[in-house]
Amino acid sequence: MQLPPIPVSILDRANARAGSAASDALATTVRRAQHAERLGYHRFWVAEHHGVPGIAGSAPTVLMAAVAAQTQRIRVGSGGVMLPNHQPLVVAEQAATLQALFPGRIDLGVGRSVGFTPAVRSALRQDKDAADRFAEDLAELLSYLGGTAAITARPYDGGATPPFVLATGKGAEIAAKAGLAVVVGGPAFTGRKPDVARGVLARYRKNFRPSAYYAEPYVIASANVAVADSAEAARDLLLPEAWAMAQSRTRGEFPPLESVDSIRALSMTARQQALVAETLAAAVHGTADHVAQRLGLLLEVTGADELMVTTNTFDTAALADTDRRLAALFGLPG
Prior knowledge:
- The chain is α/β, with parallel strands linked by helices.
- It is built from 13 helices and ten strands.
- The protein has helices spanning about 20-40, 60-70, 90-100, 120-125, 135-145, 170-180, 185-190, 195-205, 230-250, 260-265, 270-280, 290-300, 315-330, and strands at about 10, 45, 75-80, 105-110, 165, 180-185, 220-225, 225, 285, 305-310.
- Strands 1-2-3-4-5-6-7-10 form an eight-stranded parallel barrel, surrounded by six helices.
- Helix 1 runs parallel beside helix 13 and helix 3 (about 90-100) packs across helix 5.
- The two termini are about 20 Å apart.
- The relative contact order is 0.15.
- The mean pLDDT is about 90.
């Protein structure tokens, strides 16, 4: 199947791996960004998670600086900074500083999620209702970046840093009113309910108001994608993160990724088996032909302008290989 010639990007969560230090996880993220740049990927984004044993990426703007310093051309961004956790002025200053250091290469993806546990929310001085003020926080952030507020973020950004909204919950509606690009993903978009995806994005496009950043709607579709020689090998790539996700939902903690062999030796509960199967079913994985077919359907359903891959696994060599195979599927210039 012929895939459309759209930009393809990567979101890396800086997953920790069993038996390795957090410094190894961060170094792996930087090396993956360098590899992505050589392959011709468009963007490389990093995420924000707090107090999660299995994720070393807690400070996206700090990690963005490290990635940008070790690459030359690829765009570097946040996927995303969780705006309820921060003062908008501070976020604007961090983004503007990065843009000044690495002109024309910095993206600012923001989301409205708050800490998953009471302890994390308490440490961040937030509560569950913090997400409700996202639209106001976003408008304030844009005013600092654009120089229309009483205080202008320094160094002056002047609208050079494009904002993106991670569309969880009301995110797509807020993005449309603000005239910003939207990043969508999850089982609703990669599973068997494409009508959900169509509805969310139809409303986004219908309600989109052009802004200084975007004259037209811009949609990035995200998905876990694994390409390998066989369906079983591709499934194995996704198994470590699927197992970590199952543990987070049954034990309350997302742990470091484990090897496939160690996971196969475990005795999972019926609930854990079901959760692993659910996560794998929502991912796009298999041989090149199968993945191309699934991605073609995803891009058709969403009408996406760009694809962002969110895959992570225990085996870093296998991760580099699937990044290479996906780049080849889209004919990326690397």
